[in-house]
Amino acid sequence: MACSQWGRSHGERSQGSERRAEDTFKGLAIYFPKEQWAEMGEWEKIRYKNMKENYEFMTQLGLPTPKPTFMYHARQPPKTTDESSESDEEWTPKSIDIEKKALSGKTKNRKRDQEKEVSTYSLRKRERKTYMEINEPNDDDYLFCEYCLLFFIDECSVHGSPVFIKDTAVEIGLEERATLTLPPGLRIGPSGIPKAGFGVWNEGEILPPGIHFGPYEGKITEEEEAANSGYSWLITRGQNCYVYIDGKDETNSNWMRYVNCARNEEEQNLVAFQYHGKIYYRACKIILIHSELLVWYGEEYGKELGIKWGSRWKSRKGIIIMHCFKSCLTLKSVIASFVCLRQHSPRYI
Ligand SMILES: C[S@@+](CC[C@H](N)C(=O)[O-])C[C@H]1O[C@@H](n2cnc3c(N)ncnc32)[C@H](O)[C@@H]1O
């Protein structure tokens, strides 16, 4: 089989791979203007494909799920009948409520714009006043909507307030505190990854993309030894100022210390990021029942564990950066980095 593949001409091979790519992204192109689709990178397409699949899967299970924003703009109705959940949503009154919601959002924006115009006009007539300067938000003031693929502050204009799953409240200092803080539905047990020790499993309900866990708890320290504990995230405090949050001690940390590192993009279901000076995990895809929660620790620690994502991870970062620029923001997310002694430079995107 390998011979026949390599025996083909380059042209045939690239035609073959283009066809495979077309099959992979079948039914997706209709949601984008032709020019945008032609320019879109493969990893961005994969991301949209995952969002569409997540949405269809959740809908099939009968779970109320916000429709990804890009799916509101189909150039033509989806063709196949096996995508019935999608076609129904698109063309029957069932979806009208959701679309109305999105539209009313737009209408609100339009109204707000009109109001803005009016106030700008009326300000000219008013006396001069001194206004307080509004501070630019910090990079870690932003959250990310997994459906719109856009950053937002406080709440997404389409999908509303973010959902944070609270830990079970347990006082600091108790033996096994970390385990006791597990939110209902999660369980600590042997990891599915060989030799990785314990891990965290979902045994409750299906967890939708976009759900948040955290913050990560532990000892805040500047001591370099924290970098070697195997349980520390790096926290950024202004330019060139960093501290560690070390979850090694089970009496002052929480369950998040037990979440293992994903070995590849397919099994990663959590993203770690810094928000208001703390580390949170966000589900980047559906987390089914009986599956292990797996986060990406960052390139350096990944290497320590012998995991290499190489160009895949770089492309993924590229996508997020692109979305920052698309939404006219500069650097709007601080992706967290797990730390090890070999690591010198904290990473942002
Ligand atoms: C934050 S702890 C995770 C919880 C840990 N498994 C435990 O039982 O306490 C990080 C440590 O878990 C192990 N680990 C996490 N992800 C791993 C992976 N993908 N492969 C191998 N070991 C992993 C490594 O020993 C790493 O230093």
Structure, explained:
- There is one protein chain.
- With 349 residues, this protein is α+β, with helices and mostly antiparallel strands.
- It folds into two domains: 99 residues, no CATH class; 190 residues, SET domain (Beta-clip-like).
- Strands 3-6-12-11-14 form a five-stranded mixed β-sheet, with no helix packed on it.
- A hairpin with a 5-residue loop joins β8 and β9.
- The longest helix is centred in the first third of the chain and has 30 residues.
- The protein is globular, with a radius of gyration of 23 Å.
- The N terminus and C terminus are likely disordered.
- The structure holds S-adenosylmethionine.
- S-adenosylmethionine binds next to β5 and β10.
Ligand kinds: S-adenosylmethionine
Largest sheet: 5 strands, mixed
Total discrete domains: 2
Contiguous low-pLDDT stretches (5 residues minimum) are 1-14, 81-123, 310-333, 340-349
Query: What number is the mean pLDDT?
Result: 73
Order of helices and strands: HHHHHHEEEHEEEEEEEEEEHHEE
Labels describing this entry:
single chain, alpha+beta, Beta-clip-like, 9 helices, 15 strands, 16% strand, disordered N terminus, binds S-adenosylmethionine
Short account of what is shown:
The chain has helices at 2-7, 10-24, 34-39, 42-60, 84-91, 96-125, 177-180, 299-304, 311-326, and strands spanning 143-145, 150-152, 164-165, 186-190, 198-202, 212-213, 219-221, 232-236, 242-246, 260-261, 270-275, 278-283, 291-295, 334-335, 337-338. It folds into two domains: 18-116, no CATH class; 149-338, Beta-clip-like, CATH 2.170.270.10.
